[in-house]
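Cross-posting from the modeling subforum.

Setting up a comparison between two proteins and wanted a second pair of eyes on the formatting. Protein 1 (sequence, then structure tokens):
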Amino acid sequence: MPKSALLALVASTAFVPAFAADLPQRRNAPAAPPTLSACTESDSIPIDAFGFTTGSEVADPGSFGASLSYGGGFGVRDGRQAAHGLQLQGSYGLFPCAEIGPYLLGGYTDATIAGVAADARSLGAGLEMKYRLLGRDLNGIGLTVIVDPSFNRSDPTGGGEFTTYNTGLRLFADAALVRGKLYAAANLSQDLTWTGPSPYLRSSTLTIGGSLAWQVVDGLYLSGEVRHQRRQNELGLGGNVGYATFAGPGVFWQATKALALSAAYNIQLAGKAKGQPGDLDITNFSQHLLKVKAAYSF
């Protein structure tokens, strides 16, 4: 090979790496951002972290859980009352953003009003149906609508059995004030009630509540809430017969990945029953309320 040709070949090979380095390199396609929806949250908070007030989240599609709740009401005008109730409920994520929760009810009231025994037992059932409209990640606020029909068969001492039908219409909202630490929730509910054998007595109860929950450590929340209730002797918002304002603390503990325990206490701070003296309504509402709940996710 001529010397000049050999030199040209060596020179050309010296430039090959430079040409290769100048070629555009193939880049991996950027990861698709997570899809935001009303049904999922990157910063989840338990619905029971707010006390009697309830958060907005719903079960994931196909997931199942069960819970057992105790509710107690104590204190009544012109006597004494200790009302105890149990609720056994299952919950199932029916499809995205939707949850159904059938439940069984059982109750016992030990009461004496104006010197007369007013004990009662009751059994019932219901179906809570939830649909989440807004998510915190997507909208800054979580919002869920609930329809909750139920019935209760009561057997009071010294009286005939009667049936109570109730339909609860509810809105549950929540928001993260400090992600991972501080959360707020607000509830608006209207319970429409038909009581007794025909012709049924009609009444309703409006509930407005707000709560703050603070995550002290992972899985442990402390809360404080204020709730206001108004009782009407008709299905609408007229015919008010009494109102009461409650406040109290709550605690929630995620004991294991599947088991959660919670408790809440409310005391009536102010109220008024129509035609009754005093600054509390202990004719239509209890003076002290207690809730204890155990929930398990499968």
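Protein 2 (same layout):
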Amino acid sequence: MILPQKEKLSKYHQIYVSFLIQNFRVHFRMTYVIGDIHGMLDECLLLLDEIHRHHANTSGTITIFAVGDLVDRGPQTAKTIEFLADKSNGIRSVQGNHDTWFCACMKEMSSSKPPKLIYDWLRQGGMETLASYVPEHLIKKIISDDSPALFDLIASHIPEHHISFLKQLPLMLENDVCIVTHALCTPRYYALLKQYDQKKIPEYIQLFVQWNRDAPDAPISREKIHISGHTPVQNALLFEKTNAINIDTGAVFGGKLSAVCVETLEVLSVDAKSHQFVQIRLTIR
């Protein structure tokens, strides 16, 4: 359900919208979707605390999704994956392009193939990821040594269960109120995703739903809100005509780590610089 901005409503309707929000909180399951985490575990834990406080007055259950890009750029990828791989925390994530990239590079490091893919990844946040796993003296050697032996040694520091966890992440998650993909999807690609087993999705579909930055021209669902990340925005962005939300508020670039409560469209955020909770609203486009 899309609720309009309160300032556009009469005083009576503002009270009514507030009543609806409170009614959802008390009686229904609440669904929260977290933006791109990118190895920012401290901010993720603070945001989870805020999510559970927000849900505390609800008698219903809680569902927490994440839009992927769990790794790279930030300083705590190893700890982030260790935390998220523990299913007891209740978070389910889709696979982002950086998650896929990380897994591909670990495979390359154990082969004799040319390291171009690896160096491209290192320049796009992979160096910070390796620094969370690998001793500093080995990180420094990467600059001047591209021998298979070095790459194999580096790969040996990455726990296999971390790679297995990232590989098994689906490209889409869905419940009765929302559809979650890493990048913005379209009706065509949503239909294609639903046709395939999640483990056998063709590469061209995977590339689109992990890398697309173009806003959809039509909603992928009339009944559910489509939530994605991938493209950093200053404030969470609602594409009103297509029922889609971008929740990546650029935590790893000094912005905020945010989550949207799907049932109420309230946005919860932690500022990456101050580690303080900040109140933001959806920007409507």
